[in-house]
Recover the amino acids of this structure.
C-alpha cells in the first residue's frame, strides 16, 4: 500500500515557499542554511498538515529537505531512536 499523500495540496510549503525546504543546487554557507531552515520551520509551525507531512517523510524515509518541521538529520535521529 502506498503512503497517503492526500494532504499535500493543502501544505503551505508548496508554491512560493518551496525553495526554503530543500538545499540549493550550489554550495550553501552554514549561516545561510541555518537561516533557510529557520524560515522553513516557521512555515511548518503554522501548516495545517505538518503532522501528516512529518509522518509521510518518516514512513518513506525521505532523505532530502525539511518535512513536517524536521530536517534530514532530525528525521534520521527520530528513526534511529524509534522502536521497530
Amino acid at each position: 500500500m502506498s503512503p497517503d499523500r492526500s494532504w499535500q495540496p493543502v501544505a503551505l510549503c508548496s508554491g512560493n515557499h518551496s525553495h526554503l525546504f530543500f538545499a540549493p543546487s550550489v554550495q550553501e554557507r552554514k549561516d545561510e542554511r541555518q537561516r533557510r531552515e529557520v524560515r522553513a520551520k516557521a512555515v511548518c509551525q503554522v501548516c495545517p498538515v505538518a503532522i501528516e507531512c512529518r509522518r509521510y517523510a518518516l514512513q518513506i524515509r525521505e532523505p532530502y529537505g525539511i518535512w513536517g518541521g524536521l530536517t534530514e538529520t532530525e528525521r534520521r535521529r527520530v528513526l534511529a531512536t524509534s522502536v521497530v
In short: Residues 8-81 form one domain. Residues 7 and 49 are 6 Å apart (CA to CA). The first helix runs from residue 30 to 46. DSSP finds three helices and no strands in the chain.
